[in-house]
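ok so for the tutorial part 2 we go from a plain amino acid sequence to predicted structure tokens. step 1 is just haveing the sequence, like this:
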Amino acid sequence: MTKGTADGMVDGARRAVLARIGGTVQGVWYRGWTVETAQSLGLSGWVRNRADGTVEALFAGPVAAVDHMLVACQDGPPAARVSGVTVSAAADPGEGVFEQRPTL
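step 2 — the prediction. this is what the tokens look like for a chain of 104 residues:
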């Protein structure tokens, strides 16, 4: 029997979200930390700096792993000072790698 989670999703289900992280998040190894953390959680997607000073990331994978990553993003690496994380639903790119992309 499959167990449901608090948000109504079934165990083993995937989730994909686009996260925008604000604060002091560029020049503090936030993207490198994101790649390492997301890969350790088995997520697919990408992370990049944006010209407005934020960091943007697409996280896709098991619901619990994505949720864990979103919580971790609220702190980031030691030198980061996160002022907020906004999250919206995104299209799931499917299984694959998690990579760093060029600034947008």
